[in-house]
Amino acid sequence: MNLNLTLLDAIIFGVYILGVIGLGIYASRKGQQTKRDYFLAGDKLPWWMIGGSIIAANISSHHLVGAMGVAYSRGFVAIAMEWGAILMGFNALLWIFLPFYIRNGFYTVPEFLEKRFGTAARTTYASLILLTYVLVEISAVLYLGALSLHSLLGISVMTSVVILALITGVYTIAGGLRAVIYTEMLQLIVLVMGGIALTIATVNAAGGVSAITDTVKDWDLILPANDPDFPWTMYLGGVLCISVFYCATNQFIVQRVLAAKNEWHARMGVVFGDYLKFLIPVIITVPALVAPKLFPHLEKPDLLFPTLVEKLLPTGLVGLVMAGLIAAVMSHLSGAINSCTTILTVDIYLPYFRKKATEAEAVRFGRWAGAVIIVIGILCTGLFLTQSKKPVFLYLMNAYGLFTPGIAAMFLLGILWKRTTHAGALAAGLLTIPLSIAMEIIYPAMPFFNRTGIVFWSCMLVCAGVSLLTKPVPEARLEGLIWNRESLKLPPDLLRQSRGWRNPTLWWGFITALVLYFYIRYA
Description:
By secondary structure, the chain is mainly α. It contains 20 helices and no strands. Helix 8 (about 120-155) packs parallel to helix 14 and helix 9 (about 155-205) crosses helix 16.
């Protein structure tokens, strides 16, 4: 497959690339060279930028390419992970963790662990999360984006990887989170426009709206327990653990919340993100549901996206959709790079190597760290070149399952149960990788969501058991760190801002009811 872009397509695609780079450089010149400005955009983000950037960073090539491939081969259930995040992960962020992150003025998520437990817990999380970002967020996204460019334009995969990484790295390293957020808002618009164009073209080619209604009888969000990929038992632990980690304890997502103007903007931003999280997976899934009518025998499900672009789109729209793909890759990649540099600087460099570093030195280290992370991500992309038997999206979920059970256990028990101790949290964090590997070796045929769930609950039990056997944390140290009903309320000075239609709870209720309807209707 080799798509020859017309002049119009090439112009649209080129204008987008230049526009993103120019906007990123412009944003990088607006801020001051301080840690707070470089890593948290000066704490000035409004709700719509928070929600938009969360989803722009979240939706990437592993959705446009990977999730679309899963929907092609497995059907409507591919949307379960995305909508499940609204009910689990983003609810955990909104109602449990967000108040503590905002009210303590943290730069990073690991800072919460240090204040709750101690330095070792913070370092354990930082190490686990950096491995996750490099092996999953950065290298996998680069691979899937490069795979589509290779399929459509004939550019070699590794050449595409290097080009994508360097273009994104230029403005991300120069401008920090401010440049990331500014460019993500543009990328979100292009991504949605491109996705809608591809959806309309695919549905029309398949026979119109009737092509969608013909698939409704096969819509299932809850599958039998013996399903090899999406058993209903996944909701008992695997999906819960991955969703809570990804949405509520993940620097990649939470960093945007930490940069909010105030707690009202932070809460409203998460709720706005719920609406986008509902809409965009629909745009991605619908073309895949009707595509078997048009292309029933694709060699690889992950080739569906480039196939639809090549076969169905007219001149002009090809350039737009390709820009949408690159927008998804660049927004996700820039967010992951920025999160890595923030953790490396705030959680490793400053506490262990340069405690007295100036603001300028911290920012300078962050930029150098970003460059190194990009190089490592390029090198790790080769790990995905052999993962072709099943949709790569499933391998990404499996990789999350390797790292996340212990992290989710540390955070959930740490914030919900005051008896949790530093030793218990460390035990959970250190157990997650060896236990995950052991489960995969012993039970290779077990669905990875089930394996992940078993590891998650094992980490929870180990954390609780070790905590009960060790000295409890003094009550005075836990003040402001354990969840209670007061955590649900906005601070008194923000209550007036939350009246009527400006109440985040009202809008949260609407989207939650809608998602629950679909789960009940298509169970």
